[in-house]
Specification:
Layout lengths: L6 H33 L4 H22 L25 H17 L6
C-alpha cells in the first residue's frame, strides 16, 4: 500500500478498495447461499421412512395384481391420437374403439391395439 501525495489519487485508491470489498462480500454471500442448498437435503430417518412406505405400496400393488380372479396380466386400451395438427383419428372413432374394447374385455376376449 502506497500513500500518494496527490489527494485525488488517495481518493481514487480508497474508492477502488471499497469496490473490491463490496465484491468480496457479494462473493461470500453467494457462496454461502449456494452451500446452504447443498446442506438442506433429507436426513437418514426421512429416507428410511420413505423407503419403508414405498416397499409397503409395492407389496399392496403386487397383492392386487396377482390376487385370484384378478388375472396375471392387465389389458390396457391404447387409442391413437385424436387431436392436434397430426391427429390420426377423430374423437368419435376413438369412442367407438373404446366401446368395442370394453365389450371384448367383458366377453373375455383379448384386446388388439
Amino acid at each position: 500500500m502506497s500513500v500518494a501525495v496527490n489527494s485525488k489519487e488517495v481518493i481514487q485508491f480508497k474508492s477502488a478498495d471499497r469496490k473490491a470489498g463490496g465484491i468480496r462480500v457479494a462473493m461470500v454471500l453467494a457462496l454461502g447461499l449456494a452451500s446452504t442448498a447443498a446442506m438442506a437435503g433429507r436426513d437418514a430417518g426421512q429416507i428410511m421412512a420413505q423407503e419403508k412406505a414405498n416397499k409397503e405400496v409395492a407389496e399392496k400393488r403386487a397383492e392386487v395384481n396377482f390376487a385370484p380372479g384378478a388375472g396375471a396380466s392387465v389389458q390396457k386400451i391404447v387409442l391413437p391420437l385424436d387431436h392436434g395438427p397430426r391427429a390420426v383419428t377423430t374423437p368419435a372413432l376413438n369412442k367407438e374403439r373404446l366401446e368395442r374394447a370394453r365389450a371384448a374385455i367383458a366377453a373375455g376376449l383379448p384386446v388388439s391395439n
